[in-house]
Design goal:
Blueprint (H helix, E strand, L loop, with lengths): L5 H13 L6 H8 L3 E10 L5 E10 L7 E7 L5 H17 L5 E7 L8 H17 L8 E5 L5 H14 L23 H16 L3 H7 L9 E5 L3 H12 L3 E7 L2 E4 L6 H11 L9 E3 L9 E7 L15 E6 L8 H9 L3 E3 L1 H4 L2 H15 L8 H19 L5 H8 L4 H26 L6 H20 L4
Parallel strand pairs: 3-4, 3-5, 6-7, 6-10, 10-11, 11-12
Antiparallel strand pairs: 1-2, 2-4, 7-8, 8-9
Helix pairs in contact: 1-3, 1-16, 3-16, 4-5, 6-8, 6-12, 6-15, 12-15, 15-16
Bound molecules: glutamic acid (GLU).
Length: 470
């Protein structure tokens, strides 16, 4: 942990942005505070006959739009401050990418790596039942999703428990996102956060003014990338950044870190980890003394993709990255932020950069409520009409396309194509909006403050238009 609580870091960042906004103080206070926190405990019977008392939370930060939305974290040291901070970030994140939800977050104080699967299932189902009892879950109320320590399996248990308690509710699947495909999930959700990170970094690396400030050339090609954390977000961010031309020079996980300036083969590292239960000792790479050592390597893009406050007053002076791409929520403490800013490091902030997850969660929610897969109605129609167009051009040109070429051109969009296209558009547009804030307020010299201004502005307008703050 760093020098201050996570929530106060979020508040400090909020306050810095508030200086650029001209709204009544009461309205800004309302946007800043967390509306409701449900803290509860419940017993769960262990296999050996004993009981564990489980501590859990669900925080709903802002109800200016419904439902509220955000993941559920399973971690041994999760706490109320953290859940409230993460819920607040969700509110701002949704506003930035124009996802029409308020922010929320849940936490269960357990170590998922040390908890047997049947126990995880009991805990997840009981947690869901407790949320139902208190009205803290529902397609139009509060829609959880995966976060650190949870994934599609937990989301399936949540959807099933909710469905059992809402017999006949045709929209029950929309009570949670990030589900397996067979349980109402959507193609592309698992990769979404990492893919969004790639789009965000790509946007930053094509922004002339930013590149000039950093003294960097455009594009990901040959840029040295370091990824801290190999969970769902870290793995996919690394994968897409490498596919986009980056060189993955270092990786870290809970057990250790590896470095190879010539580049690491991500899939080979994953296989090595599966076989040996560790990334350490990966052939051809140097094993670093500690996982945190990757944060201090010289590189172009450092991607913290695990937990909050990994960059703090104790190591920020030694960070040698040009860009910190915040795939995790809150990886930079407020003190580290000051240091990095002074040293000219550009931070692409979490509430923008990792918003790909909630963006595709929004698409999943829409799919669940419309009860039809995206692309189902138009895929074949698109293929037929493009096919006719191609045929007409072939006749006019007197040449036919090769079969492989034709398949490429005539292909109708699948659900995954549409999801990825919606995500790409979202990340590009949000980056443009954040930069537009800076153009309008040249005094704002960092992307986080600009992102906050953009988010708070949208939420304030939404309150004003409700007539609560005339
Ligand atoms: N837990 C993810 C986040 O922090 C996803 C939230 C969601 O999809 O609702 O953004």
């Amino acid at each position: 942990m760093s020098e201050q609580g996570f929530l106060s870091t979020v508040h400090r960042n909020f306050d810095r942005a508030a200086r650029y906004l001209d709204y009544p103080a009461g309205l800004l206070d309302q946007i800043k505070i967390c509306n409701s926190v449900y803290r509860f405990s419940f017993p769960v019977r262990r296999e050996d006959g004993g009981f564990d008392v489980i501590e859990a939370w669900r925080a709903e930060h802002s109800h200016h739009k419904l439902p509220v939305k955000g993941g559920i974290r399973y971690a041994p040291d999760v706490n109320e401050d953290e859940v409230m901070a993460l819920a607040a970030l969700m509110t701002f994140k949704c506003a930035i990418v124009d996802v029409p939800f308020g922010g929320a977050k849940g936490g269960v104080k357990i170590d998922p790596r040390k908890t047997p699967v049947h126990q995880l299932e009991r805990i997840t189902r009981r947690y869901t039942a407790e949320l139902v009892k208190k009205g803290f879950i529902g397609p139009g109320i509060d829609v959880p999703a995966p976060d650190y320590g949870t994934g599609p399996r937990e989301m399936a248990w949540i959807a099933d428990t909710y469905g059992q308690l809402h017999n006949g509710d045709v929209d029950a699947f929309a009570c949670v996102t990030g589900k397996p495909i067979t349980q109402g999930g959507i193609h592309g959700r698992k990769e979404a956060t990492g893919r969004g990170v790639f789009f965000g970094v790509r946007e930053a690396l094509s922004d002339e003014a930013l590149l000039k400030q950093l003294g960097m050339t455009a594009g990901l090609g040959g840029k040295r990338v370091v990824v801290q954390g190999l969970g769902n977000v870290g793995y996919h961010a690394a994968k897409f950044l490498v596919e986009g031309g980056g060189t993955l020079v270092a990786l870290s996980e809970i057990e250790g870190a590896i470095y190879n300036p010539k580049g690491l083969d991500l899939e080979a590292v994953m296989n090595w980890r599966r076989e040996t239960k560790s990334i350490k000792g990966f052939p051809g790479a140097e094993t670093l003394p500690s996982p945190a050592a990757v944060l201090e390597l010289e590189c172009d893009v450092l991607v913290p993709a695990a937990l909050e406050n990994v960059l703090h007053a104790g190591n920020a002076e030694r960070v040698r990255a040009k860009i910190v791409a915040e795939a995790a929520n809150g990886p930079t403490s407020a003190d580290a932020e000051e240091i990095l800013r002074r040293r000219g490091v550009v931070i692409i902030p979490d509430m923008y950069l990792n918003a790909g997850g909630v963006t595709v969660s929004y698409f999943e929610w829409l799919k669940n409520l419309s009860h039809v897969r995206f692309g189902r109605l138009n895929k074949k129609f698109e293929e037929a009409s493009t096919g006719r167009l191609v045929h007409a051009i072939e006749m006019a040109a007197g040449r036919s396309l090769e079969e492989a070429e034709r398949r490429q051109v005539v292909r109708g969009a699948s659900e995954e194509d549409l999801v990825n296209s919606g995500l790409e558009e979202t990340m590009i547009e949000a980056f443009r909006q954040i930069r537009a804030v800076q153009i309008k307020n040249p005094k704002i010299d960092d992307l986080r403050t600009a992102a906050f201004v953009n988010a708070v502005d949208k939420i304030a307008v939404s309150y004003m238009e409700l007539g609560i703050f005339p």
